[in-house]
Amino acid sequence: MNLPHSGGFCATVFKTATHGYFRRDVEEDVVPSEQIAVAEVESRDDSRRAPGRVLFNDGWGFRNKVTAFQELGGSVASGWNNVHLPHDALIAQPRRADFPRGEMNGYFAGGVFEYRKTYRASTEDSGRRILLEFDGVYRDAAIYVNGSLAGQRAFGYSRFAVRIDPFLVFDAENEIRVECRTHLDSRWYAGAGIYRDVHLVVKDAGHIVRDAVRVTSPTVEHDAAVVEVIADIENAGPLTKTYRVDVLILDPEGAIVGTGSSPVTLLPGTRATARQRLFLDNPALWSVDAPNLHDVLLTLRDGERVVDEESTVVGIRSLQLDPRHGLRINGEIVKLRGACIHLDNGPLGAVSMRAAEERKVARLKDAGFNAIRSSHCPMSTALLDACDRLGMLVMDETFDVWTSGKSDYDYSFDFPEWWERDVEALVAKDFNHPSVIFYSIGNEIPETGTPIGSTWGRRLAEKVRSLDPTRFVTNGINPFVAMLDTIVPQMKARRDAAADTTAGGGGVNTMMAGFGQMMGHIQASDAATERTEESFAVLDVAGMNYSDARYVADRERFPDRIIVGTETWPNSIANNWALVEADPRVIGDFTWTGWDYLGETGIGAIRYADAMVEGSGFSGGFPELTAWCGDIDIIGDRRPVSFFRETVFGLRSVPYIAVQRPENHGRPIGVATPWAWSDSICSWSWPGSEGRPAVVEVYSDADEIELQLNGARLALVPVQDYRVEFDTIYQPGTLVAIAYTAGVETGRATVETDLARELSIDVEGNPVLSDGTDLAYLPITLTGGGGDQPVKLTITGPAVLQAFGSGAPVTTESFDSAIHTTFDGRALAILRPTGFGEITVTAETDGCTPATITLTAQ
Fold first, then answer.
1. Structural domain tally of the chain?
2. Cα 693 from Cα 257, distance rounded (Å)
3. What is the structure's pLDDT at 114?
4. pLDDT at site 495
5. Which CATH number goes with the domain that contains 93?
6. HSE value, Cβ hemisphere, 13 Å, CA-based, for 586
7. Pairing mode of beta strands 371-374, 393-397
């Protein structure tokens, strides 16, 4: 950016944080700068880049690492494969039934992986600071330049930068290598490798410090706002310098709505903070329903020479929190309709790309959610950008462990050394994202039940507040987990007693079925209250996992305590949401989970007694793949529980029909955890089940539901807790549910039998970008009788198959194959365009006419 100060004419191109390139033709003798006009918007993308910071994702090689010493011992290194970042090193690895505790990560074996890339350093950059910025590398990343170690990072989720210029040879080719490893270090599928974006950052001696532009709105009213822009400036040169910092603020349409300029003098080798307060008339405020974004552009000049530029995207909004109103945004009360989510993107694995994250956020929002909690690690920048643009509130979480480990080789060993730097990285990444309203300092940390553990919580909370006092601090505390030191011996005795009971008495299955009730009783106990009081006291909001039994009692015990359900059972939403609506101090509910995920296999599955393996419990073993507890499955299709939740939220008045699979009618259930929903789908096509019993579920907020089959009334039943069940006999035809309130019809839903065998393929959004940064999503549907079967894809044109999969919670198929079996008639192909032109995709399966679709990459 080059703001004018003396005569002449210039044309300057500004590269903004999310809105691409803005070209401005500027009369240099026009001062003040408020009169600068935006002449043309050339393009808009979502890269959150600035001059001197460019994507560094292409041209990488990847392989399973073998050291030179291992090769001397006879090991053979695999060949290098070309990959385009972001890349998940684990998702295409073979799954192993014998992998220890494989149920935690979906039976993907760990390993050591390495990436390499050649970079030609220009002589023009000699003397400048050159950094590689990684948005996330899982895990134990080590970065080498020309064989020398340039930097490391233990945590797999932090954004970090490594300075590489001391190791470069200029005007020559330089080899960059990144190593990482994973093995029994996570309770869920975390992937591996460079699974988020990489940027190359080049800075002059005088520069705006990376990740040190902070924008706040200390005063926000509907007709005015004060915006404070803060930037750290560094002079790494040998002379004292007086720089000038210029600031522009652009509204959502690209018009200039605020400008400022100030000098800053720095001695050699020092930093200073430049701070400007700008007044905006009638600002476009950011909210869930109107996610208005502003570009903030900064230029650092040494005289007339531009030495650095930075940009960021912000939303102007206010946050308030008190026990009388709960949470307010821009003065309006907001109840959090929340979803916990893991980091993976289903068939893509842990890869985080703009298109994937936008699709996820859009579908969660369409399902009725207005907030997401990152479980249990910091979000990617791409996901935060999507939440900003689409209007999704965020609780960004730091850690799943502190000093007490939950997996054999997890972060707990690194936590004492690295926690402070990782908290700093989280806040630096999140600070300018308006979607972020909470920082969570942990999840189900056992130490929260001890005095020493509480000192860790206080240390973390105050560290966050010192870095960002504008947001609220919480912690996903589970009093049950906080008391594990006393509960585990009791549970062991209970298991031993259960093992001695007969099958008819229930045994371990009965114990697991009552797990939620048992946990709730412990959560609300006086012992739990005493053990967790200090850990809750260090927070702005008491985050409670599965602790709805505490909500009412805590009104009396802690009248100023503000509560959020940071993690709740999916089948408890009707009761939980009533508690949220009844008490302003309970500001929301986050279900486990909004989106299904890889790993923690089968925690939400219905397990029938006649198919259970002895000793099985939460997991049924290989080849289970997903947790199967999400409102939305791993390819983005909504499950019945999602429509039930939308009804409870008051966002849906049309009834929804779900049918329990007739082939399972009458089978005794062995285990159904509190994360499970009924084994049902929205379908009335059950060939082979004619004349057999069927259970029909209808979700509605009406008083009564009438069920009709082929025009005949089956029953009229009162609705209780938004749900009613009908026992009927399956016959093909048309099933209709009619909702009545006060005797007046308020809506109806229809499901029809469809036995016509047909394969179809569609595309979500067309055209797509051709530069390797975009994805094309192609839903595939197989209708009619005959069940699920494999579908084969053929792709022609400039694209690669990034992933192909279904929502199946149990499968042996790989996501990197061009053949995948549908699940409940659905599958999803994900393509990454690699150049300009038309892309044709053909899907084939036995017994159906092939389906073909053409899309354009541009």
1. 5
2. 66
3. 97
4. 66
5. 2.60.120.260
6. 24
7. parallel
Closest CA to 441 of 482, 481, 412, 398: 398
Q: Residues 6 or more apart from 159 whose CB is under 8 A from it?
A: 133, 134, 135, 136, 196, 211, 378, 381, 425, 428, 429
757 SS3 class: coil
Same domain, 124 and 216: no
pLDDT at position 616 is 58
d(CA 740, CA 707): 11
Mean pLDDT per 10-residue run, the chain (858 residues)? 29 31 29 30 34 90 88 77 97 95 95 97 94 98 98 98 98 98 97 98 96 97 96 97 98 97 98 97 97 98 96 98 98 98 98 98 98 97 98 98 97 98 98 98 97 97 98 97 85 65 40 66 92 98 97 96 97 97 98 98 93 72 97 98 98 97 93 94 95 97 98 97 97 98 97 95 93 97 91 98 98 98 98 97 97 96
- The CA distance from 816 to 824, in Å, is 21
Q: Do both 678 and 696 map to the same domain?
A: yes
Which residues, 6 or more positions from 463, have their beta carbon under 8 angstroms from its beta carbon?
Answer: 420, 423, 424
Residues whose CB falls within 8 Å of the CB of residue 658, separated by 6 or more in sequence, listed in order:
640, 643, 678, 680, 681, 682, 696, 697, 698, 699
Rg, Å, the chain Cα set: 28
In a domain, 622, yes or no: no
Neighbour order of strands in the sheet with 9-15:
9-15, 21-27, 40-41
Question: Cβ atoms within 10 A of the Cβ of 189, count?
Answer: 27
Helix (H, G, I), strand (E, B) or coil at 570: helix
Q: How far is CA 289 from CA 327, 388, 389, 553, in A?
A: 16, 11, 11, 34
Contacts of 425 (CB under 8 A, 6+ apart): 158, 159, 160, 378
Tell me: do 261 and 208 sit in the same domain: yes
Q: Looking at residue 617, what is its pLDDT? A: 62
Would you put residue 621 in left (φ > 0), alpha (ψ -120 to 50) or beta?
A: left
Calpha distance 139→159 (Å, rounded)? 12
Residues 6+ apart with CB under 8 A from 452: none
Tell me the β-bridge partners of 805.
Answer: 828
Confidence (pLDDT) at 66: 85
Q: Are 153 and 262 found together in one domain?
A: no
pTM: 0.92
3-state secondary structure of 191: coil
For 304, the token pair is: 């007339």
Q: CA 312 to CA 323: how far, in whole Å?
A: 34
Confidence (pLDDT) at 614? 66
Identity at 211, one-letter amino acid code: D
- In contact, 725 and 700? CB cutoff 8 Å: no
Q: Which DSSP symbol is given to 80?
A: P
In degrees, to the nearest 5, what angle opens at C-alpha 544 toward C-alphas 542 and 545?
160
**DSSP code of residue 613:** P
Answer yes or no: do 292 and 352 share one domain.
Answer: no
Same domain (yes/no): 92, 130: yes
Q: Per the omega criterion (within 30 degrees of 0), is the bond before 84 cis?
A: no
Instruction: Please list, in sequence order, all residues whose beta carbon lies within 8 angstroms of the beta carbon of residue 447, skipping any fewer than 6 positions away.
Output: 402, 403, 404, 453, 454, 456, 457
**Residue 308 falls within a domain, yes or no?**
yes
Q: Does one domain contain both 484 and 547?
A: yes
How much is the pLDDT for 13?
30
The parent domain of residue 491 ranges over 320-499+517-595+633-645
Domain boundary among 259, 293, 314: 314
- Residue 602 belongs to some domain of the structure: no
Instruction: Write down which residue in 691, 726, 752 finishes a domain.
Output: 752
pLDDT at 151: 98
Q: In whole angstroms, what is the distance from residue 576 CA to residue 549 CA? A: 10
My answer on whether 305 and 439 are in the same domain is: no
Asked if residue 564 is part of any domain, the answer here is yes
Q: Which two tokens stand for residue 170?
A: 């200029």
